[in-house]
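Please, structure for the following, as tokens.
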Amino acid sequence: MEYLPIFVDINKKSCLVVGAGDIAYRKINLLLKAKASVVCVAKKCGIQVRELANNNKIQYIEKPFSKEDIKDKALIIAATNKDVLNTEIAKLAKKNNILVNVVDSPDLCSFIMPSIVDRSPIVIAISSSAKAPVLARLIRAKLESTIPNAYGKLAQLVGDFREIVKNKFVNAKDRRYFWEKTLSGVVAEKVFIGKTNEAKAILKKQINDIEFSEIGEVYLIGAGPGDPDLLTFKALRLMQQADVVLYDRLVFKPILELVRRDAELIYVGKKPNNHSINQDGINSLLVNLSKQGKRVCRLKGGDPFIFGRGGEEIETLAENNIPFQVVPGITAALGCSAYSGIPLTHRDYSQSCRFVTGHLKNNDINLPWHELAKEQQTIIFYMALNGCKNLSKQLIKHGMAKDMPVALIEKGTTPEHKVYVTTLAKLPNLVDNKTIHAPTLLIVGNVVKLREKLNWFD
């Protein structure tokens, strides 16, 4: 370890920045975030630094640097473009035992500035020991994407109750166990979704009643159409803290590999006329597992509220007073069309779109065919592979042109993504002569003509 990572208290302490350009401005802002009293010395001042001075956020002294400027300073940053001056500042600071940072000159520094993830009071500093600052920033970006802003509020809540918990649990091991359970349970999730008062009430209950058995929670998560990169940050975070994951057949393996390694995986997928477990059974399982105090992830392909029966599941949870969260996912229509170069709306071709289930029951679908058979709209049929022939027949029968473009998308957004383009009249022949596997999505409309020009994924 080349540098000792420390956090320095500069609250209300006088800190000197030499230079007043763009780089100096960025460093000044970091010091102001730490509530320092900033003095800036430079012969010329940039617009942004001048604005800080005009707003009385810093003291700006327009003059060349002199050794008297370092007097009574807790910290110094040299941000000039003059090597000789920067070296002089560094030597003076070190001689007077003052922390000094010279921008882009680690050999002259007594400390270096890390990349920072700020979730105050949680602060994460990432350093490459001045070897690869761009890499440090990339690591920071990854952390930024996985650590919610509300972690700061959670830390504040913990701080408010720290002494109370310390007095309640005298043994350090008991305290650690209590906080580990709290910070990965319902209390934390309540804070993350902005329900801080509810979080406080639950935390008080846990502290005051040692026998209090915390009920679990259900996360109803949309896994998107297949590409793991289309998961939301929130979906990924909850997937990685769930104790149990109930997943359906539309959740692709690479997505399942992102759940917590020791989580229990339960397959509850359904195919036409072949259900591993029926919907009532899934609903009961969600209730029973959460009543055992477990965090349950119900992982669904696409979006849980678009032909995913998510509404039925949370209705059961609500009836049983089970806490739950719903995390939207990119539904198949949006993901598959985007990856196929087919915009669902376009000023020249389609002014509306409709999402329709193509799942057949008794070989018949009761749909408003007259409303669907319009040329200036896009129709997206879900679960339509087995019903393609009937859909084609009904749309033509109710007035849609036989040469209306059609795209059938197989395993959209995944490495097995395939797109078959035909016309409404020729759709039955395509299905008969090609081996096409579910899941598939059917897009009907003139927007399909744009695929040849806009296709980017294949």
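The chain has five domains: 14-113, 115-147, 151-207, 217-330, 333-454. The mean pLDDT is 92.
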